[in-house]
Amino acid sequence: MSDQHETWSRRGFLGASAAGAAFAADMTGLNVLQNPALAGELKQQGKRVILLWLAGGASQLETFDPKPGRPTGGPYRSIKTSVPGVEISELMPKMASRLSKYTSIIRSLDTKNADHGGGARLMHLGRRDEPTVKYPDLGAVLARELGRVDSQVPDYVSFYTATEGRGSAISQSGFLGARYNAMFLTEGNVPPNLRKLDEISDLDHQQRGELRDLLSKRFAAGRQSASLASHNESYARVRGLMASETLFDISKEPQNIRDKYGPTLFGEQCLVARRLVEAGVPFVKISRAWWDSHGQNFETHLELVTELDNVMSALLDDLSERGLLENTLVVTLSEFGRTPSINSSLGRDHFASAWSSSLSGCGIKAGSVYGASDEDGRTVKDGKIGAAELFATIYRAVGIDHRKDYHVGARPIPLTDPGTKHVAEVLS
Amino acid sequence: MHVWQRPLLALFVGLISAGSLRADDLLPADTAIEAAIDHYITARQKSLGVEPAPLADDANLLRRTLLDLHGRPPTAAEVKAYQQNENTAKRRELVERLMAAPAFAREQAAAFNALLMNGTNSSLRSYLTEAFKENRSWDRIVRELLVGQENDAEQKGAITFVKARLKDHDKLTAEASSLLFGVNVSCAQCHDHPLVTDWKQDHYFGMKSFFSRSFENGDFIGEKAYGLVEFKTTAGESRKAKLMFLTGQVYDEPEIKDPDDKAKKEEKELLEKLKKDKQPPPAPEYSRRAKLVEIALSAEGNSFLSRAIVNHVWNRLLGRGLVMPVDQLHSENPASHPDLLAWLARDLQTHNYDLARLIRGIVLSDAYARSSRWESSTKRPADDLFAVGMVRPLTPWQYGTALKVAISNPDQFPADLAGDALDAKMQGLEGAGRSITEKLENPGPDFQVSIDEALSFSNADRISKDLLRIEGNTLLGKLKTIADDKEAATTAIWNVFGRAPAEEELQALEQYLKTRADRREPALQQVVWALLTSSECRFNY
Questions:
Q1: pTM of the predicted model, to two decimals?
Q2: Tag placement on chain B: N or C end, fewer CB within 10 Å?
Q3: Residues above pLDDT 90, as percent of chain A
């Protein structure tokens, strides 16, 4: 792709900007698909990301970076995996046998922010907040990069739990605009307002929308405005989004598949996630709370890690069997990890100096392990990276150049902070 | 001023002068504001061979003016009365009448609150409503925003501007500077500012220094008498910031040593006690924030102050500032009409920062009144020529009110309902409308409507119940009594859009109703729904 083409891509989506004004004049209403070059680029994308957000801070010592026998190791042992020389927590036997097939582990995150709010924001935006720029979060960026402008399915779906609380559920479309807001689900597994009210027939619902459309088109004639266009686009997507309600209905899945994911809320939501990415939703975030084990770390992780092991392996197997995994990236992440030191309540506290994340599927070199912590897990010994590098790696895995610029007014804003290098070692 | 500052100051003054002509090259000061605006706007259009769109018609202009001054659209009766008024001065009469009504202060308070408090969890609305009721001057408002006394009934709401941002001094610095002076100074954290050639971190931390001594103490704001902002330069050197304004000018201040540990402990104890007693901390002898106000209003700073507020007001009323983005007012980012900006800023300064006067002048200009439809076969002119009106999303508050007005039975608004009685009724609708649209976002630059809005208006039970009730006092209640489809359609369009229907629209609505004769009431609801959710209702055009 030439630079010129890439410029059109960005500018086309974001509408008017100084140099692109003439072009933007033709691009009213983000009606990008009228431009065959852009439409082609979009169709080729087809990449998806599922984020398993382990809310509260999952312990790397009880998952991907165990230290058995060390004072910081805790009671659980480590087990061999299908990758020679690599061991993970004994609480994850299913993932252990699948590591060489699907997953890469990063053990060297040092992100410095060990409070829930700040850490969560950092690990959703991939960078620190700035007072003057509202950065879009990972979901918004991926929705924009991987999704279709006129998408009839949602492009950013976020499940959060009552435990985590809506207030902690970070979601920010930032300067990309409300078009890329998350569709949130909490009570139950279906987004609100997707179903028409009983008092109106489906035909009337559709035709009333068409009448609305006719009136609005007359109004828009001779008028030019990106906000105006976005208003009509939102309504144009309503029927399609309503039709996607069925994607959230797991009763449509055969029982044996449902059994593999298990009957827990997290399991069911991951099954919904598979249905969503199968239908073309580019980004789904499932939040599992609450990993913040300041006390009773080992009981908490026994429960949560066992579930994670079951659900994650079921999800990866399912995606793989359907041929979806080569285009779907599955990420596990938290706001931070947990302290190697065990406190007096047999808990571990917040710890951002040496923790882990995993990446599976699309673009990933399965079986790779990047970075290392020291023998007690107190510091990163090797391959230290921060949020920026992790995000750069995620973008690269799904074919996005992490150095590309968005433009806010005349100010270029790169996807990741300048100079950020992705971790090439974990990419295939 | 230090010796080395003088060349910088001269450079600054030179740049400002070069960017805008000397005072005697501007139109005379006694020109009417609207005449000055139209002079400069037309001159640039002519120089580029651009013929502007015609002025908006009566119904359109009435709607636009009423939304901007009162935050609501007109009723059908008001539109008809205005259209039938043959007085050539009716537009001026309208503006004067609207600005004298209580709804003017309410709407300006809402608009300025959105501008000044966006992104915070606090509101200045009650303070601003009082301030606008008495047309308090902008310079006085700025003083109260920055150093308003909490024990003064008139001022105490104002200091919320600072209080709401005290947890983050960087945010306070960046936002105060952007909103009040039109300059987003936080860019200077990372790179040189183009205005002053060696604007570096000194300047950012210099501005921050005006705020750095301010702190929260329980419910009150305090300001220490000591303390310097320390920072590390990009070369790794530790430096203490001096008070520096946006011009690069450094300000001397009384040198106050940090108190010793014992004094600090006593101070802490005193503050704790005051917090418990819910009393404000004592004011420092020398207040850096007060110094900032002094500078802002002096010859040094007032060009920033006046140009920034002119630009904000212009941006809100015209849909685009004379300088864009609105927080990049400096000579390397010239205004689309530099002389006009200079003239309006000078006019504001010489008329005691009278905002109502500025608003009146803008709203009476031809530039404000352009149709937003481009119907010529020639290419649509760029927005910064102000040759075509801009389409602007309604604020959540305005949209809620507009919906409530739209669904009211027109019989509730007879032609003779006017003055206080009309205002009281409208205030009721404003209040009622808020719950429908409170989840919507306040429009900023590049505003987009989210899918949530479309889905909730399409499928949410609450909204449907709110907007589509068939009762005596609603539009639908009225439509139910009109047997003739064409008449019903006409009434509906008049009520929701505030204008006469077009033939094509009447046909579409009639057709819709005719094919649903067996379920006429639901059909009427659906027609009204289509009108309420159409773009014409959602935007100020």
A1: 0.83
A2: N
A3: 71
